């Protein structure tokens, strides 16, 4: 439960930051890139077109590409990929079938 709570807290806490950065990043970086004359912009304009709409499209392409790159990087990181196999399972915890646990819980 604690792990899921921390995971949810991190995901929920980063969402306002992502929403605050997405608009200015798209408006100030990607729209000018797709409207300008830079070498990268000209290459991307050949694939995604020109103008404001293609700037926002290139933003979505960049977000998708970074998601794929992070997933591949996580998979290539050996300790993370083999985490389930390397961490031993918890042993020795009482179960509900144990008579001492049933007596402590007030269940007869």
Model regions low in confidence, pLDDT < 50 over at least 5 residues: none
Shape, principal axes of CA atoms: elongated
| Total strands | 0
As a percent range, the share of strand residues is under 5%
What count of helical segments does DSSP give?
6
| SS-derived structural category | mainly alpha
Describe the biggest sheet?
none
Description:
This protein is an all-alpha fold and 108 residues long. The chain has six helices and no strands. The radius of gyration is 25 Å and the shape is elongated.
Short characterization:
The chain contains 6 helices and no strands. It is mainly α.
List descriptors.
elongated, mainly alpha, 108 residues, 0% strand
Which helices and strands occur, and which strands form pairs?
Layout: H1 2-35, H2 39-48, H3 52-76, H4 78-81, H5 83-86, H6 99-104
Helix pairs in contact: 1-3
């Amino acid at each position: 439960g604690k792990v899921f709570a921390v995971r949810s807290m991190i995901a929920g806490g980063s969402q306002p930051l992502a929403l605050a950065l997405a608009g200015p990043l798209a408006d100030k970086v990607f729209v000018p890139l797709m409207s300008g004359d830079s070498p990268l912009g000209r290459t991307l304009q050949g694939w995604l077109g020109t103008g404001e709409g293609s700037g926002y499209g290139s933003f979505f392409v960049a977000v998708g590409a970074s998601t794929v790159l992070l997933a591949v990087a996580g998979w290539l990181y050996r300790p993370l990929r083999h985490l389930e196999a390397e961490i031993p399972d918890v042993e020795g915890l009482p179960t509900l079938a144990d008579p001492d646990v049933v007596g402590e819980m007030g269940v007869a």
